[in-house]
Amino acid sequence: MRIVIPARLLKKLPREVGADGDLHGVVHPAEGHLHVAELVRAGRQIESSLPKVGTWAVCSRARSEEAEPGSGLRLVIGVDDRTYRVSLDGNDVTAATRVVDDEEEFAARIKSSVDVKHLSKCRVAILGAGRVGSNAAMLLAGSHVGRFTVLDRDEVEASNIPHSAFQMTDVGRDKAAALRDGLLTVNPLLEVTAVQADVCQMPLDALNRLSQGHDILLVAVDDPLFMRRVNDLAYALKPAVYVALHEGGRGEVVYTRPQKTRCLRCCVRLEERTRLEGAASLGIETLPVVLVAVQVVLGLLLQGRKGGDAFSGLVNDRRNLLLVGSRRAEPLKELPEAVLMATVAVDTSRQTRHCEVCKNIAW
User: Fold this and answer.
1) Taking the model in full, what pTM does it have?
2) For position 280, what pLDDT does the model report?
3) Side-chain half-sphere CA neighbours of 205 within 13 A
4) Distance, CA of 359 to CA of 161 (rounded, Å)
5) What is the average pLDDT across 52-72?
6) Window from 127-136, 191-200, 274-283 with minimum mean pLDDT
């Protein structure tokens, strides 16, 4: 929640309060009551004292050291019904201010089409914070998914920047922690847990707890042995989405649902792969694969809810293997060249090879 104090009321404040523009008092719940977390004006945080007084929190700024008590700007937040008072040099100016609910504003353009309340409570585990995991997480956060666990063992390198959601300032940081901070810049209200760990070496009991504690797993690790371990353990527990990238912007997305779809082993012959190749292509060419994966995740989370029908073309339990491929098209009149993306849903229901995991589930 933000309490916005109009610029016209701030003309008497000292210069160090900042440039022109409204003053935003950012308010968060803490310890059973509301408190002022920060003051922001023209995008710059304002230094201020934030002493708590009982169930109240006070943010004041006097015009000078010799100012009388109560002078300057005083913002007082109450515990009941998020009430507050704003005074300027002892005069009550509360009526001239306004309250903005950031959570409500964040969902304003999508709440009519999807169940944002449900999405905000969903937990998604991101296994691998590379070009797939990082970009997918940012898109899911922008779609109002509210809770994430991010797992990765590596640090951000400069070579990651063109393909991922990281920035140059993240170089040298743990990918999991850097992605957590990036997600919180999209929406500070998110719950994000960052775990620096080699997911490929996770014990089975840790994988089991991870599966049970989340609504869906997004597996973006280019290790077929690990994919197989997750599939064998998680298939009976929770939905999972597996993503692999290949040369030229091609890729595949497989999703599984307990007792609803064929498992990953039935869709992709993992035993024929030693390690999946990392895609040596432009970052923009890999985004269509990421977009398909994100839409599948949203489709699974929203099944039977408002907005779920929009993803029915991708979420089809008989066709849970999606092949995404790009190719250069013939030059168009309007453009010198174009990149066309095609997504093919493969019918996996006819798989006849015996499977110990999904038991060749039949419809």
Assistant:
1) 0.74
2) 55
3) 0
4) 42
5) 39
6) 274-283
Residue 283 burial by Cβ neighbours in a 10 Å radius (0-12, 13-18, 19+): middle
Which of 41, 112, 44, 116 lies closest to 73 in space, CA to CA? Answer: 41
- Residue 224's pLDDT band, with cuts at 50, 70 and 90, is confident
Task: Determine the Cα angle at 82 with ends 80 and 87, to 5°.
Answer: 105
Query: For residue 239, what are its two tokens?
Result: 């939905």
pLDDT by residue (tens digit) across 320-337?
999 887 454 344 444 333
- State how far the Cα of 172 lies from the Cα of 270, in Å rounded to an integer: 32
Residue for token pair 């919180």: 184
Going along the chain from its start, the domains and CATH numbers come out as: 2-100 (no CATH), 116-346 (3.40.50.720)
| Rounded CA Rg of the chain | 25
User: Residue 189: what pLDDT?
Assistant: 82
Which strands make up the sheet holding 44-46, listed edge to edge? 44-46, 33-41, 23-30, 2-5, 98-100
Mean pLDDT of 226-236: 89
Within 13 Å of residue 122, how many CA atoms lie on the same side as its CB? Answer: 26
Tokens of residue 334, six digits: 């309007």
| Tokens of residue 40, six digits | 């922001």
Among 156, 157, 168, 162, CA closest to 282: 162
The pLDDT assigned to 83 comes to 60
